[in-house]
Amino acid sequence: MKGYMPKFSILGPGLLWSAILFYCIPHDGHHIQHDLAAKSAALLAQHDISPGGLSDVLTVDGRDVTLTGYEGTPEVSENTVKMIAAIWGVRSVHTNILRRPEPPMPVVTPQQAREAAASISGILKLQDVEFYSGSERLTPLGQRTLDQVANVLAKYPGMPVEIAGHTDSQGDPAKNMELSRKRAASVKQYLVEKGIAGGNLKYVGFGATKPIASNANAAGRQENRRVEFHTKETN
């Protein structure tokens, strides 16, 4: 018949291409997943990403890809995500950021703890950890003393240290207790600012409860106003 057209022409170009793709592209889920995994692995290998092995880096579930790696590594960088996302057939790309394990703390032996204590004791015999009167603020002399203490502690990373604040018996006992605690906390903060790990430092205030000299005279009271450092070994 004149003007006869095949019926499938009424599908139009869009539907026609959809039909072609449907019959020409495998729809087996396992095949698609395997294909995407191979293409993703090849792309990562091409850019020398995770040369040690891709099995721990690349996971493909259907059309979804997961990249695993430590923060800041190429495996999970923005550029890598974009490269994988550009592969035809990939639906989504996720990242699994791993937390780097904490390095083991160095072991501090009893002998090392004693050595550190002796060095700090030698420093404190020459100059005190000095504060402004009635305050937890360190004087310039107090800061210089702690600079030397920090140099000693830096030689023994991981060593636990208790910072103990003490006062004389002048004034209100409760206020003295609070002042001694604040001064010990101020010492800890200063040492942390000098690079000593805060997790190794514990502070406590004893007020006037542990005098080492008589509070009946000025010389004794000055001795009692002090900061002590108790170093300890690690288990």
Overview of this structure, please?
It is a single chain. The chain is of the alpha/beta class and 235 residues long. It has 2 domains: 27-98; 110-231, 60s Ribosomal Protein L30, Chain: A, CATH 3.30.1330.60. It is built from 7 helices and 6 strands, in the order ααββαβααβαβαβ. Strands 1-2-3 form a 3-stranded mixed sheet. Helix 4 (110-126) runs antiparallel to helix 5 (140-153). The longest helix is centred in the C-terminal third of the chain and has 21 residues, at 173-193. It is elongated and about 90 Å long. The chain starts with 11 loop residues before the first helix and ends with a strand.
What is the end-to-end distance? 99 Å
The proportion of strand residues reads 5-15%
Within CATH, the superfamily of the largest domain carries the name OmpA-like domain
The CATH architecture of the largest domain can be given as 2-Layer Sandwich
Count the beta strands. 6
**Structural class, from secondary structure content?**
alpha/beta
CATH fold annotation of the largest domain: 60s Ribosomal Protein L30, Chain: A
Reading the helices and strands in chain order gives HHEEHEHHEHEHE
Mean pLDDT: 86
Report the uncertain regions.
4-11
Shape, please? elongated
Total of helices? 7
Task: Give a quick account of the main beta sheet: strands, pairing sense, barrel closure.
Answer: 3 strands, mixed
Work out the oligomeric state of the chains in this entry. Answer: single chain
- If strands are numbered along the chain, what order do they take across the biggest sheet? 1-2-3
How many domain units?
2
Rg, nearest Å: 35 Å
